[in-house]
């Protein structure tokens, strides 16, 4: 299993596994939290993901990679998406229509939990254990994407305390390092001076080196 980067693993779990042919509609909101995760590979390398979620908003911050994935949902269940690249001073905005055009329709709850309900249902309960801050967690075993998986799941916040996926050299372990309430002070969107580019306009902007790199990445299956 190719797990060369934390962004790709998270996108596999959240987007590929949980994509549906149409956009989701309104669902019960998950608890508003900020969670910090570490991904450790079998070779000892590590990366970190910060997840912030509150009603109508989920953001994934890939710390070492230096970019953010923001998802917004309106009252109708329509999604918008923004990918921000502070090091390049730019962001790319996908409207709901853009997402439909490229058939990108992630499960909203999976965006905020890293795993969807169908993935949880596919795993078998194997007891409980104490996880972060002595929280009660369920232990679930089975397979995800044909890989052996062990999940320690926190029902109260709908997040993994730990997810082990794969075996041997392909094994990766995602561990929840910290968890706090997503208060307005902590979860307010960062105001960065980024030039916002519309996804629909990128085809006419290939003179821009950033756009060329971005489109090349997209053509290699970012989504």
Number of helices: 6
* CATH fold call: outer membrane lipoprotein receptor (LolB), chain A
* Spatial ordering of strands, largest sheet: 7-8-9-10-11-1-2-3-4-5-6-12
Which blocks of ≥5 consecutive residues have pLDDT under 50? 1-8, 15-26
Reading off the top of the CATH hierarchy, the class is best stated as Mainly Beta
Main beta sheet, described? 12 strands, mixed
- How many discrete structural domains? 1
Radius of gyration (CA) equals 17 Å
Would you tell me the structural class of the helices and strands? alpha+beta
Beta-strand portion reads 35-45%
CATH arch. level architecture: Clam
Summarize the helix and strand pattern as letters. HEEEEEEHHHEEEEEHEH
Q: Termini separation (Å)?
A: 17 Å
Instruction: Give a count of the beta strands, DSSP E runs of length 2 or more.
Output: 12
Specify the CATH homologous superfamily.
Lipoprotein localisation LolA/LolB/LppX
């Amino acid at each position: 299993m190719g797990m060369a980067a934390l962004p790709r693993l998270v996108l596999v779990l959240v987007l590929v596994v949980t994509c549906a042919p149409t956009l989701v509609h309104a669902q019960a909101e998950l608890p508003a939290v900020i969670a910090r995760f570490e991904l450790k590979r079998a070779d000892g390398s590590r990366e970190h993901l910060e997840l912030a979620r509150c009603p109508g908003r989920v953001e994934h911050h890939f710390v070492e990679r230096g970019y953010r994935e923001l998802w917004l949902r309106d009252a109708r269940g329509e999604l918008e998406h923004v990918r921000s690249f502070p090091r390049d001073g730019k962001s790319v905005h996908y409207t709901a229509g853009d997402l439909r055009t490229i058939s990108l329709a992630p499960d909203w709850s999976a965006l905020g939990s890293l795993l969807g309900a169908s993935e949880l249902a596919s795993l078998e309960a194997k007891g409980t254990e104490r996880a972060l801050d002595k929280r009660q967690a369920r232990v679930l075993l089975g397979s995800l994407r044909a890989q052996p998986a062990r999940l320690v799941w926190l029902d109260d916040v709908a997040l993994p305390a730990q997810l082990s996926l794969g075996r041997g050299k392909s094994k990766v372990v995602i561990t929840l390092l910290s968890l706090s309430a997503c208060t307005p002070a902590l979860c307010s969107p960062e105001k960065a001076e980024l030039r916002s580019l519309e996804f629909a306009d990128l085809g006419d902007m290939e003179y821009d080196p950033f756009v060329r790199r971005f489109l090349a990445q997209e053509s290699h299956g970012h989504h």
